[in-house]
Write a structure and sequence with these properties.
Blueprint lengths: L3 H12 L4 H14 L6 H10 L4 H36 L3 H14 L1 H9 L4 H10 L4 H34 L3 H19 L1
Helix pairs in contact: 1-3, 2-4, 3-4, 3-8, 4-7, 4-8, 5-6, 5-7, 6-7, 6-8
Length: 191
C-alpha cells in the first residue's frame, strides 16, 4: 500500500501554490505559540519546489516564527496560569517544568537552543514570559535560534534538494514508514 509517495507528491504540489508563502507564514506564526506542527514540514518542500527562493522562504519563516514567539511570550507574561489547563491537556506541562529549570540555569541560551532544535519552542516562549525573562534578550535569542534553524534547512534544501529528490523519491515509502516506526519507538521509550 503506497501512502507516503502520494502524500509527498501532494505536499510538493501544495508548496508550488501561489498562496503557499501565506500558509507558511501562518503556520510559522502559529507553531511558535500554540500549534504542534513545525513549519519545517512545509518549508523544506517549498525550498525543494523553488530552490532559488530558499532565502526568502527562510526569512519569511523566521520573521513569522519570531512574531509568534513574541505572542507566546506575552501570553506567558499575562496569562500563563489561565493557560495551564490547556497546557496540561496538550501534554506540555512536563516540558514547561523543564523549560523553567533551563531558564534558571541558562536564560538566553535556553531560548536559543529551543529555537534552533526540535524542542517545542512554544513551551519556551510561554515559560520565558511567565518567568519574566527580559523581552529584548528573548527576542534576540529567538531571531538567532529560529533564523539559524530555518536558514540552514532552507539552504540545504535549496542547494542539495533538487539533486537528491530523484534519488530519495523511490525510497519515500521506506522513509515514511521508518519515520512512523521511529516516532512510535521514541514514544514507547519515553513512557
Amino acid at each position: 500500500m503506497k501512502l507516503f509517495e502520494p502524500l509527498y507528491d501532494r505536499v510538493i504540489a501544495w508548496s508550488r501554490h501561489p498562496r503557499a508563502p501565506w500558509f507558511l507564514g501562518g503556520l510559522s506564526f502559529a507553531e511558535s505559540s500554540f500549534f504542534p506542527i513545525p513549519p519545517d514540514v512545509m518549508l523544506a518542500p517549498m525550498c525543494l519546489a523553488k530552490p532559488a527562493q530558499w532565502w526568502r522562504l527562510a526569512l519569511l519563516t523566521t520573521l513569522a516564527s519570531v512574531l509568534g514567539g513574541a505572542l507566546g511570550y506575552f501570553l506567558g507574561t499575562w496569562a500563563l496560569e489561565a493557560l495551564m489547563p490547556w497546557i496540561e491537556r496538550m501534554g506540555w506541562s512536563h516540558n514547561l517544568e523543564i523549560a523553567r529549570s533551563w531558564f534558571e540555569k541558562w536564560g538566553f541560551a535556553a531560548v536559543f537552543i529551543a529555537g534552533f532544535s526540535p524542542i517545542p519552542y512554544k513551551v519556551f516562549t510561554l515559560a520565558a514570559g511567565g518567568m519574566g525573562m527580559p523581552f529584548l534578550p528573548f527576542l534576540f535569542a529567538s531571531i538567532v535560534g529560529r533564523g539559524g534553524r530555518f536558514f540552514l534547512v532552507s539552504w540545504l534544501m535549496g542547494r542539495y534538494g533538487p539533486a537528491m529528490e530523484p534519488k530519495l523519491r523511490p525510497f519515500m515509502e521506506w522513509v515514511g514508514w521508518g519515520s512512523v516506526a521511529a516516532v512510535g519507538l521514541a514514544y514507547l521509550a519515553l513512557r
